[in-house]
Predict the structure.
Amino acid sequence: MKRSFIPTAEQRAVIEEALRVGDLKVKAFAGAGKTSTPQLVAEHFGHRRGMYLAFNREIAASAARRFPPQVGARTMHSLAWASVSPSARNRMSLRGEPPHELAARFGLGPLEVRTVTGNAVEIALFEIGRMIVEGRDRFCRSADVQPAAQHIVVDDKIDEAVAAQPRAYLLPYIGRLWEEGAAARATSAISPDVLLKLLAFSELRIEADYILFDEAQDSDGVMLSVLGRQRHAQIIYLGDPYQQIYEWRGAINAMAQIDAPECALTESFRLATRSLRSRAVCSHCSVNARRSLDRAPSARSWWKTPRWRRRSAYSTQIEQQYHGKASRHSTRTRAEIPQQSERCGRGDAG
């Protein structure tokens, strides 16, 4: 892998720390080189076997083209896909059971609860089924070994003192739904969350000397439990604690929970590039932009003009302003268009 840039002082500190210690977490803020830093680490690790774990296939495929051959690039879900049986993979393509049909199959009916305002409301059959499915998925995304009441999300409008009742009532059915999906001979559809939980229970060993775990701020409990079992490998967590976007689905901020030496990438490449580009564009276009606004026709006259004439007038105006010549679509001759020196001397012309 060829390196076409010089590492910053902070990136060199990350490399030195990765070579010196075991597990490491790197807080990389926006535009501070989080994409290039894992490549630099892999380069300095030489022929050691590595595994880069990303959150989606596009990022993993892009990383695979940048890393050296001894470093694999996968997603956590692709590891789960490879670890389960072919029958479990086939169940991924099946249509899921509608929530109201699931609740009816379990023999459940509507529930009446009290809101924070004291009014009695009814939880419909569809909502009950959705709560069971979501509770199962939240359990699968956690590090817990069995479903618990905290995995069941109850609407905020329901009084918290009353919320314990539907949680306790639905908890056995969440365990039942999980057991149906995890059974070896099951034929029902399973979700990616169930697949990842099966990976965690399988105690998979990732064959690598070190693991680069990207976007760690959006990891969940089950992902961290899988990585926590890789005692044989050095794990480097990379993430931005200020860009956590999956908290709503059970993600936890691993950057705050992992007990490991910490490095930071704070020098933003994006800010410097944007500042230089914006400064150049503004200095070049500010005068022309003001003239363009001065020459712009009023909205009423513009929309009363036929469309073909609008297009011709607009293109001619742009040509006069930036090129000083007519295109093959313009009806004006070059002699009719003011020259550059004349335009510069008549900036206030209408």
